[in-house]
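In this supplementary section we document a worked example of the pipeline. Step one takes a protein sequence of length 100 as its only input; no multiple sequence alignment statistics are reported here. Step two produces a three-dimensional model, which step three serialises into structure tokens for compact storage. The input and output of this example are shown verbatim.
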Amino acid sequence: MGNMKIKAKLKGDVVDVKVMAKHDMLTYDQAKKKGVDANFITHITATVNGKVVYDVSTSQFWSKNPQFKFSFKGAAAGDKIEITWTDLKGNTVTESKKIK
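The serialised model returned by step three reads:
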């Protein structure tokens, strides 16, 4: 079900991260109409060198295949950012990308 497109670029001392998570993001209403269970991403965490740089709880109100971005300090080019999302059914997807 899941995979992500991740871009992480270092500009000065700030890393800008853009992510697109592939997920149907079925709301309760959509799921009811389709006769299936609701399922959407509920939590996203990003770490670099074992340190959490982004941590957010999300809801059913994100669109299908949601895109999000964030920035943080304290990493270098070549470090790896690891992003994990968890959905309502407990599925977890983790992917990583080197910071450019």
